[in-house]
Amino acid sequence: MKRNWMVYTILGLAWLGMVMAMPAASVLGLWKTVDEKTHKVRSIVRIWEVSGKLKGKVEKGFPLPGEDPNELCTKCPEPFKNKPKIGLEFLWGFEPDGDRWVKGNVLDPDEGKIYRCELIPAADGKSLRIFGYIRVIFKIGRSQTWLRASEADLQPQNK
């Protein structure tokens, strides 16, 4: 009986070690941004790491009828001003903090404003919460949820 207890304890500790050693879901790669009002995919964003910090840019846009597919960032501050929104590097400076990325910046190209930002991946890696905020005494902001995308999502769609 004492031996069974020891075997179960060793197996339990081994399982716990494997679970704790599992890496957090990655934020790297492609993500679909979803419009909060229409619930339609508006763009595909690529996030990558450079020297331990994250950056992100718009890889592809899905303009609504009547919108300019080659729209420029006219309200944005320098050095973003009058740059095309597609290809715009609008996420930068994120540092790892456990399973999230913090102390980053996000540019809202529609309003031309820059906010502090955090990236929080879901445990399954299928969604990413983006929290943009200003800090007064505490963080005031809003969040969006992006969905995992693939390289196939970048391909032209047949109509």
Describe the structure.
This protein is mainly beta and 159 residues long. Helix content is 13%, strand content 45%. It has one domain: Lipocalin (Beta Barrel). Strands 1-2-3-4-5-6-7-8 form an 8-stranded antiparallel beta barrel. Strand 6 and strand 7 form a beta hairpin. The N and C termini lie far apart (69 Å).
Keywords:
single chain, 13% helix
Annotate the secondary structure layout.
Blueprint: H1 2-21, E1 29-34, E2 41-50, E3 53-61, E4 89-97, E5 100-108, E6 113-121, E7 127-135, E8 139-148
Antiparallel strand pairs: 1-2, 1-8, 2-3, 3-4, 4-5, 5-6, 6-7, 7-8
Question: What number is the mean pLDDT?
Answer: 86
State the assembly state of the protein chains.
single chain
- The total beta strand count reads 8
Secondary-structure arrangement, i.e. CATH architecture: Beta Barrel
CATH fold-type name: Lipocalin
Q: Which spans have pLDDT < 50 for at least 5 consecutive residues?
A: 5-9, 11-23
Biggest sheet: strand arrangement = 1-2-3-4-5-6-7-8
Largest sheet: 8 strands, antiparallel, barrel
Helices and strands: which structural class? Answer: mainly beta
Question: Which word captures the global form?
Answer: globular
| N→C terminal distance | 69 Å
How many H/I helices? 1
Order of helices and strands: HEEEEEEEE
